[in-house]
Amino acid sequence: MTFVRWLATRVGCMRRVLFWYVPIGAALIAAAVFADGFYSFIRGDTGTAVNVSPSRAQETAPRNTIAPLVVGDSLARGTGDESGLGIGGRLVDELKRRRIPTKNVVNLAINGARTADLLRQLDSRNVRVLIGQANVIIVSIGGNDLWGDNWRNVMPSDPEAVMGAVLDRVERVVKVVRGANPQARIFVIGLYNPFVSAQFGKMLTPFVNRWNAKLVERFAEDPNIVVVQTSDLFAFHDRLSFDRFHPSQEGYALIARRIADAL
User: Fold this and answer.
1) Domain region containing 161
2) 63, 146, 193, 222: which has the fewest C-beta neighbours closer than 10 Å?
């Protein structure tokens, strides 16, 4: 009997190993492999690129179809639009409404991104290849560099210097995008004042206008770069979302319409 009990115990242990520990171990190994592969894909480190220069993607965009791509911050991502469409999705809908052949948008924007974050993202070969496959590229960046550094609470001692430094980084972003795709139309989204109805909000409007003027001046030499003005869309009408910072569905639709009008 003792031998039988011992044998039954051994069989039970083996069953637990086969039916529980082995599958769990395999699942953990598979998860680790997937996580490593996914991280490498995000960084752009998967495999060896074939005929892809680090500075310039060789992929080409379609000729007779709009292929939009969006990079940047939460405004580019579409935060506040309950439909999830944002600028890119609403641009696609607007162009299709006008019977213009259009591919679905590729949205690479990240909530909370600043210029430094976007520059790091653009280091990825995969991202540059996707940029090379687009012919309409929407860039929204710089707002978090400005608003995120407490402009809403305390004005910087030298606003011109702050705006100049941020604008230099925005220009670097656009140069990287242009390097990856020399032919695409690039739409840089201008700033609006989300605090216009607040007690201190009207004080920010002159700086918003100054920023937008600097954007236009900085990119005036490239006919394929359009600065999309948005300030007037929010200055006289409440087109903010429930978070009182990002555009509402109507706000995004109007921005997208301005891009469509400029194509």
Assistant:
1) 68-262
2) 63
Q: What is the pLDDT of residues 12-55, one digit of tens each?
A: 544 554 445 545 555 544 444 444 443 343 333 333 333 334 44
CATH number at 81 reads: 3.40.50.1110
Could you tell me if 29 and 107 lie in one domain? no
Asked whether residue 231 is domain-assigned, the answer is yes
- Specify the pTM: 0.76
SS (H, E, C) the chain: CHHHHHHHHHHHHHHHHHHHHHHHHHHHHHHHHHHHHHHHHHHCCCCCCCCCECCECCCCCCCCCECEEEEECHHHHCCCCCCCCHHHHHHHHHHHHCCCCECCCEECCCCCCCHHHHHHHCCCHHHHHHHHCCCEEEEECCHHHHHHHHHCCCCCCCHHHHHHHHHHHHHHHHHHHHHHCCCCEEEEECCCCCCCCCCCHHHHHHHHHHHHHHHHHHCCCCCCEEEECCHHHHHCCCCECCCCCCECHHHHHHHHHHHHHHC
- Do 136 and 226 share a domain, yes or no? yes
